[in-house]
Amino acid sequence: MALPRVLVLVLAGGAGGRLELLTDQRAKPAVPFAGVYRLIDFPLSNCQHSHVSDVWVSVQFHPTSLAQHLANGRPWDLDRTAGGLLTLPPYRGTERGGWVSGTADSLWRYAPLIRDFAADALVVVSADAVYKLDYREVVDGHLESGAEVTMVTTEVAADDAARYGIVEVGDGDRVRDYAYKPDQPRTTTATNEVFVFSPGPTLDRLETLSTEVGEEGLEDLGSHLLPAQTRDGRARAHALDSYWRDVGTIPAYWAAHQDFLSPEPPLDLDDPAWAVHTRGGRHSAARVLRGAEIEGSLVSGGTRVAGRVIGSVLSPGVVVEAGATVVDSVLLPGARVRTGATVTRAVLDDRVEIGEGASVGGDGEITLVGREATVGAGTELTAGARHPDPDEDEA
């Protein structure tokens, strides 16, 4: 029996404003994670292990940063003569051309292409979460159920639930109520931005909704589409019981790195049965010099450590000089911490330099230092600061 034909659409075009300076010059899915990975590696690796070879990536903001990483899909076995990886940039020339203004709007703009592809199931995923999931397993359950949409769900903290689409699950796996980012969530069961749609009925519904909402626009999937499918009894839930972490904010991004510093991390990124693949770089082995102290940290190839590193993630090319201290922080490629400097509970973007004797961060909020910024010698950048100030250009 032939496998169902599955198309995965990765929505990678959002501005990623909640990640502040980290998305100032790169697409959100291109943000580094756990030293050597990028956020988009997780859904693409899921596609590979799920034996899905037709993957479309919708791009918009800073597309070059993502294109450089995708490398025609080769790391995920998507560089194929037929099918494989296809990037979908904004375009002009038809009534559906133009700048995408939401996830449902994106689906509507690509509807003719999706119809022509004639998939049995359309899997729509975001690229700002860390997780492993067999998309084929979800597709099989969806097709057996006869539902119009299957929402993959996870449990979230009560004080964080208002950031998500929240569902109530009734008898079996039927979704009986859906609320998009409610002020007062009724449950802590959230959609984790993985949806399996029946393409024909869903696209037909989008056409109707587009007419009904008029100039308001379709906006996001949770604005009109998912509530309508739920009201008609056409939505079901698929619970994900394993690790899932949204990293779309600076505190969440930092916290996810802390998860992977555990002696038993929540996901084995090197598991031969479900490895997370990425575009490999050419880096020498990490160099830990005499007198260095490293404790409970991830140290990537190409780094050089002569100082003290505790509970931190060092990406390729990071340098921590003798007498410098890095604690509970995430340092992205090429960051350098000079002699006598201290970095605590901070995220340093690409090629940031912390001058001799400077102090960055501290207890409390996460301190973020933007790409290629220099913190001068002896400078004190307090906890929770953003450097450079993301609002300074508006003055």
From TrEMBL:
Domain Nucleotidyl transferase, which positions?
A: 9-260
From the UniProt annotation, give the residues forming the signal peptide.
Answer: none
Q: Which residue range or ranges hold the Glucose-1-phosphate adenylyltransferase/Bifunctional protein GlmU-like C-terminal hexapeptide domain?
A: 292-364
Cite the entry's keywords alphabetically: Glycogen biosynthesis, Nucleotidyltransferase, Transferase
- The answer, when asked if Nucleotidyltransferase is one of the entry's keywords, is yes
Q: Which GO terms describe its molecular function?
A: glucose-1-phosphate adenylyltransferase activity
Q: Does the record carry Transferase as a key word?
A: yes
Protein name as annotated: Glucose-1-phosphate adenylyltransferase
